[in-house]
Structure formats: C-alpha cells, structure tokens
Hints:
Elements: E1 2-5, H1 11-24, H2 39-49, E2 55-62, E3 65-74, E4 83-91, H3 100-113, E5 120-126, H4 130-138, E6 142-153, E7 156-166, H5 183-195, H6 202-228
Parallel strand pairs: 4-5
Antiparallel strand pairs: 1-2, 2-3, 3-4, 5-7, 6-7
Helix pairs in contact: 1-2
The protein binds coenzyme A (COA).
Amino acid sequence: MLIRALGHDDAATYHALRVRSLREHPEAFGRTPEEVDPVDAIARRLAENLGSDADFLLGAFDGRALVAASGCHREQGVKHRHIGYIWGVYVAPEVRRTGLGRKIFEATVERARAWPDLEQLWLEVTTINTSARALYRSCGFRSVAVKTASLKLGDRYYDEEFMVLHVRGPAALSGRPRRIDYSWLRRALAVAALRMRGQASPRKLWRRWRAQRSMRSSRGSAQRTVWGG
Ligand SMILES: CC(C)(COP(=O)(O)OP(=O)(O)OC[C@H]1O[C@@H](n2cnc3c(N)ncnc32)[C@H](O)[C@@H]1OP(=O)(O)O)[C@@H](O)C(=O)NCCC(=O)NCCS
C-alpha cells in the first residue's frame, strides 16, 4: 500500500472517493455529497498544495485504486498559524481494520508536524464515531470540548467533539493537556488538620473549608453588587 500526497492528476479519483465517503457516512462528516467541489476546482487546489506549508491531502493506493485519504489545513492568519486542522479521514470499507487508518492518520500527523512553527493539531469527530475516536485517542489526541447538536441531518442531531494534539510549544511538554493543580488544596487541608490537632476528620475539614469559601464568595458578591449600583 503506497501513501503519498495527492496532486493535480488525482483530482477525479479523489472526487469519487470523497463523494463515496460522504454518502456512506453522512454522520461522520460536515458536508453533503452535493457540496463536494467539482473536479477542476479540486485539481487546482491539489496543484497549489504541493510544496505549500498550509495544506496537503494524503491518499493511500492499493495498486492504482485510491482507497483512503486524510487531509490537513493550516490557518494563514498570523495569530492562528500555529494551528492545523485534520479533516476528511476516510478508509474504504473493503480495506478497513487492516491498520491502514492508523498508517494514513499517523502519516498526516507526521507531515503536519514538519510544518515550521506548528504547535497544535485539531480535529472534530462525531461523538458516536467510536472507531475514529479510539484511533485519535491512541495517537495522543485529547478531547477538549463537545459541540452539542452541532451536526444536523434532517431531524437528527449529532454532537461533535473537538480533539487536540500539542505537537510543540508549552502545552506539549508532557505530551498531554495540563491538569488542574490541586496541591494547594491538599496543603491547606494538611495545615488545617495540624491546627485542629487531629480533632477533626478530613471530611469535616473539607465541609468547613467549603462553607468558609462560600461565605467569602457571598461577601464578595455583596460588595460587587454595592459597587455595581
Ligand atoms: C475510522 C477509520 C478511518 C479507521 O480506519 P481503519 O483502517 O479501520 O483503522 P485501523 O485498522 O488502522 O485501526 C486503527 C484503530 O482504530 C480503532 N478502530 C478501528 N476500527 C474500530 C472499530 N470497529 N471499533 C473500535 N475501534 C476501532 C482502533 O483503535 C484501532 O486500533 P487497534 O487496531 O490497535 O485496536 C475508518 O473506520 C473509517 O474510514 N470510518 C468511516 C469514516 C470516518 O468515520 N472517518 C472519521 C471522520 S472524523
């Protein structure tokens, strides 16, 4: 199986594969088959892609047949150039579960990673798409948000999940999104426990701390109300 970037001459075969993917999996993609660009527009875009550091589309060939695809697009604006979006991941049903999905997806991530200054890769996946979500998670992508009922097919709605992979930059240091640091709370409870000289259980301390915190915040909001008026 050969995986390579698609160019001008692949436009017609890619058009057919893309239409097929949207017909077979309307709930997995954001476009309808009727919204696929015509072959000549795809050909122009694929010709522009070669050598660009903002767009590419990979294809996998079984002999001469195009059987899988996966694309990546990078924003051009100065403030968003560090983000790339993976789109159009698709493997034809007859070659699924052979490892091809992983191969073409990993090749997409690696190629995008080589773009200068790229820091994050984003993608969207319907929450019911267990196979694609498992693939993305196993490649290090993490869920950061869910767009409720963002895909509408007739009278059915689907939620879409935003997933991100930090390829470099501050959040990539651990290879996963930063976790909330609760060590300050542990320290506060330990100090409170010392003050109580072991007379109160952690549960009681926790309740007391929450009560004090809500009193503090209600005092704060009362002040804000006065200042606002
Ligand atoms: C998602 C898709 C690309 C996976 O392609 P594939 O060639 O079958 O994937 P692979 O054989 O390389 O498997 C890769 C991983 O995907 C996951 N996966 C694939 N099929 C799965 C299934 N039926 N159930 C659960 N997990 C599955 C697994 O994590 C698997 O890793 P593993 O083999 O180590 O368990 C393919 O099913 C597809 O094209 N689906 C329709 C279009 C689509 O949903 N695209 C994604 C849009 S966001």
